[in-house]
Amino acid sequence: MQTALTPQGSSTDILAIANIPILWILAIGVFAAIIVQSLVYMKAAKKAGPAADISETELKKSFRAGAIAAVGPSLAVVLVSIALLTLFGTPAVLVRIGLVGSAATESASASIAAGTMGAELGDASYTQAVFVVAFMAMCLSGAGWMIATLVLTPILRRGDTKLRKVNPALMAIVPAAALIGAFASLGIAELGKTPVHILAVIVSAATMGVCILLANKTSATWLKEWGLGISIIIGLAAAYFAQAAGMAPAA
Length: 251
Prior knowledge:
Structural class: mainly alpha
Radius of gyration: 22 Å
Order of helices and strands: HHHHHHHHHH
Oligomer: single chain
């Protein structure tokens, strides 16, 4: 098996260099940093809990709710990652798609980079040389997210402090409104694609509404934690059956 670039980088054996040991080491290093960071944040939350009048039980409940809520969105990431493995290899997909940025942004960056070399992802023109350029574009794209966060977070924190002095109640509304707006924009963006997309959004929203209603009307408070994952799974199932029934327009 070829394990390095050919002199001209013209080989189409992308996985030969996409899965080289150094990339695996770097990917594992990134995951290790994320795990350590998460443990540090959890320890800090436990330490600051009593000062914020948050009990140990409430902290454990919030950690559990966050872990469960992450399951649903992770399913979508896994499905996208499987589709991209043959294009970018496992280490690149783990780092670029699983941790930083989004599938759409990273794929678009790689596609544009490949286009500058007169190639397209996945076809005969997608050589090792094109992969290297596309991978670099993906890395730069992901770095942009991290740099923007590093620069903007202190600025937004100062704005948060000033707004709290003017109207403390406002900062309870703004984050919630921003979160609702972000998810609403993502959902609305899918509505105009196909009837299957519309059905998936409606079914998912209805399922989430039912979960919240049942959680409020009964003692099944666990539905608030599992609602997101349940709604995503049922929405995916509805989209699958709708696709099988021929709701999607022909390509």
